[in-house]
TrEMBL record:
Domain HNH nuclease: 16-77
Protein name in the entry: HNH endonuclease
Source taxonomy: Bacteria, Pseudomonadati, Pseudomonadota, Alphaproteobacteria, Hyphomicrobiales
UniProt cross-references to InterPro entries, sorted A to Z: HNH, HNH_nuc
Record key words, sorted: Endonuclease, Hydrolase, Nuclease
Record keyword Nuclease present: yes
Alphabetized Pfam families for the sequence: HNH (PF01844)
Annotated GO MF terms: endonuclease activity; nucleic acid binding; zinc ion binding
Organism of origin: Shinella kummerowiae
Length: 95
C-alpha cells in the first residue's frame, strides 16, 4: 500500500491507530507499552508512540504501511543508523 510522501493529519493518525492495534500497544523494539496521544505535551515522553521506518528513509525506505511500525520515543531516538533487526535484538537483550 503506497502512501503519499508526507504523513500528515488524518492519514498519520489512522496509520498510528492501526499500528497501535496491530502491535497490541507495544513498541516494536523493546515491547514496552506505548502512550498513544496526539497532545503536544505527551509527544516528548519516553513512552510516546512514534512512527518508525523499519527500513530507514536514508537507506531507501518508503512511507508504505509494510515499512512502518510504532516505537517508543526512547527506542526511535536511540536507533540511529543501526538496522531494525540488529537494534531490536540488542534492545530486547538489554531489558
Amino acid at each position: 500500500m503506497g502512501l503519499s510522501k508526507s504523513l500528515n493529519g488524518r492519514r498519520k493518525r489512522a496509520i498510528t491507530a492501526l499500528l497501535f492495534y496491530l502491535q497490541e500497544g507495544r513498541c516494536c523494539y523493546c515491547r514496552k507499552f506505548l502512550r498513544l496521544s496526539y497532545a503536544p505535551l505527551y509527544r516528548s515522553r519516553h513512552d510516546a508512540a512514534t512512527l518508525e521506518h523499519v527500513r530507514r528513509r536514508a537507506d531507501g525506505g518508503r512511507h508504505s504501511l509494510d515499512n512502518l511500525a510504532l516505537a517508543c520515543k526512547s527506542c526511535n531516538d536511540g536507533r540511529g543508523v543501526i538496522d531494525w533487526l540488529t537494534y531490536a535484538s540488542w534492545i530486547r537483550n538489554e531489558f
